[in-house]
Design brief:
23-stranded parallel sheet, binds uridine-diphosphate-N-acetylglucosamine, 37 strands, alpha/beta, elongated, seven-stranded mixed sheet, binds calcium ion
């Protein structure tokens, strides 16, 4: 198979976004528009990618630093043809070159692959991805001869009355044979009413020079939607979200209210898991089977094993093992590693800490920089005092230990196996195995004190 490369046009200003941020960096479903395009291109096995930048070039380049793409600057935005001309020296001499837009986030790798396959099997020099749409307003129209062959593309603003009736539109996605493109790219000029270099002029140039060209009409016209405004951004977001949610429902996941469930494209979910409204699943999150993801839960880059129940909680860069329950209102910060059959209850915050199988922290506790063993009880109001104002230190609580309510464990400290810390104790030294640790003022009573102070009379 020929070697393929891609050029993504992303130099336009995007004034209708009314934003300090370049248009293609606006996000939907967890990724910027241009990131979606790059991901779709890479998923189509095209790894040689050039991005044409202009408006907000520095910001775009910085954001795409790790994307493994080349950048070409288009200093002045003189049209789509001019944009592609800037990349001429970087375009390979052989193979196919696909051209797309950075503001077309819905385009799927399936459509790209089908389009490229069409171009290959037809042995075309130039192919255009098109669609029939109900409202072609604003788009370039595909003009064909009586044999149904494309002869040119006419822009909406340059079209005559008859051409305006054509409902097959130019998506702006093209595939070129590299030698054709290199030879004729600079034949595009700006001799038109708009004084713009039109990339679609390559069609008439190809016709004139008797190259082989064709159109590939996709039925997924919604994928060709270009985003120009915040309203369109949210339309695209809703459409993409719907597609993701429907895919997971097809795969055996119950989503109670798909319109209010936010699942990013890289998330994976096992069968018979139920997701309640307002759940947001982000990044590389993997959720097992038979889980319950309760309302307004947010999970980012985390692994949740089978049978876990989570209510209204936030889980970031963490791992939760089988049959554990989390929340309501728990906060698992990065580095939390929660074992099997654990209970993390309401208003419990965990950070950079391992909690062993069968342990419980049922309410109101902070566990940071710690290693907690198996079957440990962490009472209500327990604080792992990990920070002395300068540095964070470690706290270890071994298997079967009991940490009573309102205990402070001051780092660095260890509670050995079966150590039992009485409620209200501040622990600053190692608690020996099986020992009771009690460190609180001895209780005493002053008889008649209340009457003497006349407290009740006030
Ligand atoms: C273009 C096509 C039109 C097609 C439509 C599909 C031309 C002349 N017309 O129209 O046939 O139906 O797309 O959406 O190509 N860009 C640059 N540099 C420039 C100009 C544009 O990088 O100098 C980029 C923009 O950032 C954008 C894309 O190219 O991502 C399309 O530009 P835009 O001005 O929106 O083209 P349209 O007029 O919509
Ligand atoms: Ca456009």
């Amino acid at each position: 198979m020929a070697l393929n490369s891609a050029v993504i046009l992303a130099a336009g200003a995007g004034t209708r976004m009314k934003s300090k941020i370049p248009k293609v960096l606006h996000q939907l479903c967890g990724h910027s528009m241009i990131d979606h395009v790059i991901r779709a291109v890479k998923a189509s096995h095209i790894n040689d990618i050039i991005v044409i930048i202009g408006s907000g070039a520095d910001q775009v380049e910085k954001k795409l630093e790790k994307s493994d793409v080349q950048f070409v600057l288009q200093k002045e935005q003189l049209g789509t043809g001019h944009a592609l001309q800037q990349a001429k020296d970087k375009i390979p001499n052989q193979g196919n070159v696909i051209v797309l837009y950075g503001d077309m986030p819905m385009l799927s790798s399936e459509t790209i692959k089908a389009f490229m396959a069409f171009h290959e099997t037809e042995r075309n020099d130039l192919s255009v991805l098109t669609a029939k749409v109900e409202n072609p307003y604003g788009y370039g129209r595909i003009v064909k001869n009586h044999k149904g062959e494309m002869i040119k593309i006419v822009e909406h603003k340059d079209a005559d009355e008859e051409e305006l009736l054509i409902d097959e539109i130019n998506s702006g996605v093209y595939c070129f044979d590299a030698p054709f493109l290199k030879k004729h790219l600079h034949d595009i000029d700006n001799n038109n009413n708009q004084k713009e270099y039109y990339l679609p002029d390559l069609i008439s140039i190809a016709v004139k020079n008797q190259y082989k060209l064709g159109t590939y009409q996709t039925l997924n016209s919604e994928e060709l939607m270009g985003v120009n405004s915040r309203k369109q951004l949210m339309e695209a977001d809703a459409a993409m979200r719907k597609k993701i949610n429907e895919k997971w429902m097809d795969e055996g996941v119950t989503i109670i209210n798909p319109e209010h469930t936010y699942i990013e494209p890289d998330v994976k979910i096992g069968i018979d898991t139920i997701i309640y409204p307002g759940a947001t699943l982000k990044g590389n999150t993997i959720i097992g089977e038979d889980c319950m993801i309760g309302e307004n839960t947010r999970i980012e880059n985390s692994i949740i094993k089978n049978g876990v129940e989570i209510q209204s909680s936030v889980i970031l860069d963490s791992r939760v093992d089988e049959a554990t329950t989390i929340g309501p209102f728990a906060y698992l910060r990065p580095g939390s590693n929660i074992g099997k059959n654990v209970k993390i209850g309401d208003f419990v915050e965990i950070k950079n800490a391992a909690i062993g199988d069968g342990s419980k922290a049922s309410h109101l506790a902070y566990v940071g920089d710690a290693e907690v063993g198996k079957n440990v009880n962490i009472g209500c109001g327990v604080i792992f005092v990990n920070y002395n104002g300068k540095e964070k230190q470690k706290i270890i609580v071994e298997d079967d230990a009991f940490v009573g309510s309102n205990v402070n464990l001051v780092a660095p400290v260890v509670v050995k196996n079966k150590g039992y810390v009485a409620a209200g104790t501040t622990v600053t030294m190692e608690v020996p195995e099986g020992a009771l640790c009690i460190g609180r003022g001895k209780q005493r009573h002053i008889d008649g004190w209340v009457d003497r102070k006349n407290i009740k009379k006030k």
